[in-house]
Specification:
The chain is of the alpha+beta class. It is built from six helices and eight strands.
Length: 213
């Protein structure tokens, strides 16, 4: 019996996201995996709160994060068939990484991507690197290593296998024109502490990757 997962490529609205699109000329800057077409279960390596740039890791994104009032959100969504065993493996990987706080957002790879084409860092992923890691393991991506994929690269390769399920404004799929108040909370000392410690842990990961690989 086969199951389905969805790869979501989107155009987020943060300053960093807009800068990435301007520098690279890409359309989409964010990648995530969903287990349902209603986008109720979306997982991605991303910020845990909008104002905390460095406190990022694997998060269960609310679909409201993708929506802002009076703001169009272009997306590409691909529907992929997977076996039952692959489906369960993906869920186990996500569950493990969600519970293991050692996994961080690969900030170094994101910042250097236009110049170096991705940097592999121990226990750290960008949003596209994580999606590419999953898709490479189940046989959908083959052209590059996981850390070398940008969201646009994922879309281009999946287009070759005619997996596009939806392309357009996310608001056509999700009618809740509201915002996630928890995600858009105010910056605080707690988030400052989390930002600093998260960056320190990421530096440790980068050092370990140099030593080990």
């Amino acid at each position: 019996m086969s199951r389905k997962i969805y790869v979501v490529l989107s155009q987020t609205t943060t300053f960093v996201a807009r800068s990435i699109r301007k520098i690279s000329g890409c359309t989409y800057n964010h990648a995530a995996i969903s287990f349902d077409p209603e986008m109720e279960e979306i997982y991605a390596f991303a910020r845990k709160q909008h104002c905390a740039f460095l406190s990022a890791g694997l998060v269960h994104e609310s679909r409201l994060r993708y929506l802002e009032k009076d703001c169009e959100l272009p997306v590409q969504i691909f529907e992929l068939e997977v076996t039952e065993a692959q489906y369960e493996w993906i869920r186990l990987v996500i569950e493990y990484m969600m519970e293991n706080k050692e996994y961080k957002y690969n900030l170094f790879s994101m910042l250097s991507f236009p110049f170096l084409g991705g940097v592999k860092t121990y226990k750290a992923y960008t949003c596209s690197e994580f999606v590419a890691f999953i898709l490479r393991k189940i046989g959908y991506l083959k052209q590059k290593q996981s850390h070398q994929y940008a969201p646009e690269d994922i879309g281009k390769e999946l287009m070759l296998s005619n997996r596009l399920w939806f392309e357009g404004d996310m608001r056509q799929l999700v009618r809740e024109l509201d915002t996630d108040e928890r995600y858009y909370g105010h910056y605080s000392r707690e988030w400052l502490y989390k930002d600093v410690t998260s960056f320190m842990r990421l530096c440790e990961r980068a050092f370990m990757s140099v030593r080990l690989f």
